[in-house]
Amino acid sequence: PERRNVLGVGIHPLTLSGAVELIGSWINSGSPVTRQVVTLNPEMLYRAQSDPALRDLLNGADLVVPDGHGIVWAGRRLGCPFPERVAGIDLISSLAERGARQGWRFYLLGAKPGVAAAAAENLCRSYPGLAIAGAEHGYFRKDELARVLAGIRAARPDLLLVGLGSPRQEFFIWAHRRELGVPVAIGVGGSFDVISG
Ligand code: UDP
């Protein structure tokens, strides 16, 4: 679907299930360059007003969904309505539900040591059969970056969830999209903290 411009950022008017459908088609097509999914919250949209690099990234990302009632509201006011808010945590749940049935392998990167692994465990409990390709914390040093990237590549996941906080996670995915070796990556903010708790 065509993007709708809100304050200079093109946002896709998709429902949660529409987004899952599209992401699933990307996983099955196995693109060599990672497709980037952004759940756009109002803070990020605000920040993009004064950060052209972030705005360009958002407009270059493959899928941007509105993760905020304010954005959905603004869309309606601007005459370009979005069907619903698509929150990161709901997107993770729906993808896990679908992924457990389709055999998608998830890799979780981010949050404090142990949190991503605990979140993975909880997801597996909620969605039996879900496959976890790996989990890694998000407090690696610059000189550990190559190891982190190699770990992701070696695990060959279908879906990479990156919870480094926004917009850091968005820049991470964008910068490494040609070397991650994963068809789809999504920035998920503090979701691992929520799911692990
Ligand atoms: N985080 C990380 N590495 C860092 C800084 C933050 O993995 O160097 C994690 C942090 O532990 C938390 C998430 O990124 O799990 C940020 O969550 P927050 O709710 O602050 O971010 P937002 O949801 O607003 O993007």
Question: How would you characterize the overall build of this protein?
Answer:
The protein has 197 residues and is of the alpha/beta class. It has one domain (4-196). Helices cover 46% and strands 19% of the residues. The protein is built from 9 helices and 8 strands. It has helices at residues 16-29, 42-48, 52-60, 69-77, 88-102, 115-126, 145-155, 168-175, 191-196; strands spanning 4-6, 9-11, 35-40, 63-66, 105-110, 131-136, 159-163, 184-187. The strands form 2 sheets. A 6-stranded parallel beta sheet has the order 4-3-8-7-5-6, with helices on both faces. Strand 1 (4-6) and strand 2 form a beta hairpin. The longest helix has 15 residues, at 88-102. The chain starts with a strand and ends with a helix. The mean pLDDT is 97. The site of uridine-5'-diphosphate has 13 residues, from helix 9.
Write the layout of secondary structure elements.
Layout: E1 4-6, E2 9-11, H1 16-29, E3 35-40, H2 42-48, H3 52-60, E4 63-66, H4 69-77, H5 88-102, E5 105-110, H6 115-126, E6 131-136, H7 145-155, E7 159-163, H8 168-175, E8 184-187, H9 191-196
The chain binds uridine-5'-diphosphate.
